[in-house]
Design brief:
The structure is a homodimer of 160-residue chains. By secondary structure, chain A is of the alpha+beta class. Chain A has helices at 15-23, 28-31, 40-50, 80-83, 103-117, 132-140, and strands spanning 6-9, 55-61, 67-77, 85-94, 120-128, 144-153. The radius of gyration of chain A is 16 Å and the shape is globular.
Chain lengths: 160, 160
């Protein structure tokens, strides 16, 4: 049976639950700082996302209002593809005990539908090559690993 | 000797030159429509970029005011990395006769500096795996191909 899940825009009250999800991951544990209170950089970032009409932070709730999934959508106007909009997906996490239960698939169905509503011709994301299960998951959704995802770190959290 | 180049935000008057650059490329030729007048979708996209404080379309001019390079920067607020901003680079093109002359390197020095000014901890891009020279170029700048770049096309120009 499928879980009854609710997809909605995140609010500031969700922020501790979101950071907890992001930190509960081998890569995220090195990057995040889940303390009480949270470092103010998190709420500043939340405010920047929340006021930007081209960014949407989406959470997934159980009926008990527990946040078990998060992702961020960025809608990007581009000159390429005859002036086409694209949607970038970042910061995807599902709570450990809900993985392999179809939650991720439903989150992406939701995100792809949202990208269509926003007139995007393309949904794109990058996935760390040390996460082969994630890459297989995205390929199962129809994503094609046609590109190299290149990163240049300029310093900051998690990079000594 | 280095070319004397000017880096600046694109204006609407640059749009035909930008589309000509994008179309003059094996992949771009299939995606773009360089006609006179241009399809209105290009100027609509330009307007969307121009009014968005988190998107910057940058062109490179010769002293004769010929546009020989273009790239787009998108500044993205994120919850990940303790609420860190990242810069996404898209739509990079250098005019054929100016390639291998250090123009691309100077465009990226400029873009990376701009990302630092905007407080980004990370610059990211994806590069088509059928462009090995481009990937080597990015690696020479310090980018690491740590991620797969996955794309899901939803239909539109260049995808019949």
């Amino acid at each position: 049976m499928e879980h009854a899940l609710d997809f909605r825009r995140a609010t500031l009250a969700d922020l501790p639950a979101i950071v907890a999800l992001l930190a509960d991951d081998p890569l995220g544990a090195r990057r995040e700082k889940f303390s009480d209170p949270l470092p103010p950089s998190y709420s500043e970032a939340f405010a920047a996302i929340d006021r930007d009409p081209n960014n949407e932070l989406v959470v997934v709730d159980t009926p008990e209002r527990r946040v078990i999934g998060v992702l961020q959508l960025t809608f990007i106007p581009s000159i390429t593809y005859q002036g086409g909009w694209r949607a970038l997906v970042e910061g995807v996490r599902v709570a450990a005990e809900f993985r392999s239960g179809g939650v991720g698939q439903r989150m992406f169905s939701w995100a792809i539908q949202r990208a269509r509503e926003r007139g995007c011709h393309l949904v794109q994301l990058t996935s760390d090559k040390t996460r082969p299960d994630a890459i297989r998951f995205y390929e199962s959704l129809g994503f094609v690993a046609s590109h190299e995802g290149l990163k240049l770190h300029l310093g900051g959290p998690g990079r000594a």
